[in-house]
Amino acid sequence: MVLVLVLGDLHIPHRIHDLPHKFKKLLAPGKISQVLCTGNVCDRETMEYLRSIVGGAEIQVVRGDYDELPGLPSSLTVTHSNNSLRIGLIHGHQSLPLGSLDALSAIARQMDVDFLISGATHAVQAAEYDGRFFLNPGTATGAWTGAWNGSKPGFAVSTNEGVKSTGLNGDPIPSFALMDIQGTVVVTYVYQFIDGDVKVEKVEWRKPDGYGVDERVGAKTPMTPGVGSVMPQTIPSPTPMSPQNAGW
C-alpha cells in the first residue's frame, strides 16, 4: 500500500501557532510515503516540518491565496498505480463558489484527473461526483477562515440522503486525511481533533472501470461512508497489507 498524507490551510504563524500536539504525535517520520498539501503553509519552518514527515524528501505543495513562498505552482497532478490513477491538487480558491462540486468538477475535467484534492473552505468534504472523487482535508490547524460559503466546519460526505455534516457551528475543526492507495481503490481516513480527542472516519472509493472523461460527465453517483466506524488512533508503517490488516 501507499500511504499519502493530505492536509492544508495551516496558516502558521499568522492565524495559529502550530498543529495539535496529538496530530504531530501521529505524523511520525517513517510511516508516510507522500505528502500532498493544498497550500497556505505560510512559513518555511512549517514546510520543513512537512518534509521531515517523509524523511526530508520533496513534498507536493500548491500555492494558497495567502502563501508568499516563491515557486509554488497553482496546481499539480500526481499519478499512482502505473499511471492508472490521476490525482489533481489545487488550493481551492479557484472554484466559485468555494467548495462547489460543480465548479470543482469542471476543474477536474480540465486537469483530466480521477481524484481532485482541494482546500480553502477549512471544512472537510469527501464526495463522489461526475464519476470522480473529491476530497477537501479541511484545515490541519483549525485556523479561522475569513471566507463564508454557507457550509459548517466539520465532516461532510455524500450519502443517499444528500450531504451529511457531523461538524459543529463553532471554529473550524483541525483535520487532515490519510489515503491508502491500492491500485485504483483509495481508502481515505479523515482525522479530526474534537474536544481534545482524535476522531477518525473511513471512506472508500473505487475508480469506475473503463470510464473516460466524456463517459464520466453527468454520472452523479452518491456514495455511502463508513458511518460510525471509528478507527484506532495510530498510523501504520507502510507494508503490503491494508490498514485493516496491519494492526490498526
Keywords:
alpha/beta; Vps29; disordered C terminus; 248 residues; 12% helix; six-stranded mixed beta sheet; Vacuolar protein sorting-associated protein 29; seven-stranded mixed beta sheet; Purple Acid Phosphatase, chain A, domain 2; Metallo-depent_PP-like; protein transport; Calcineurin-like_PHP_lpxH; single chain
The CATH architecture can be given as 4-Layer Sandwich
Number of domains: 1
Strand order of the largest sheet: 4-5-6-8-7-9-10
CATH superfamily: Metallo-dependent phosphatases
Give me the number of helical elements: 4
Number of strands: 13
What overall geometry do the principal axes of the alpha carbons give?
globular
Distance between the termini: 14 Å
- What is the beta-strand fraction? 25-35%
User: What is the name of the CATH class?
Assistant: Alpha Beta
Secondary-structure content class: alpha/beta
Query: Which percent bin holds the helix content?
Result: 10-25%
Uncertain segments are 148-153, 158-169, 212-233, 236-248
- Largest sheet report: 7 strands, mixed
| CATH topology tier name | Purple Acid Phosphatase, chain A, domain 2
What is the chain-wise order of helices and strands? Answer: EHEHEEEHEEEEEEEEH
Computed Rg: 16 Å
Q: Please, what is the average pLDDT?
A: 80
Keywords: Protein transport, Transport
Pfam families: Metallophos_2
Family: Belongs to the VPS29 family.
GO cellular component, one term: cytosol
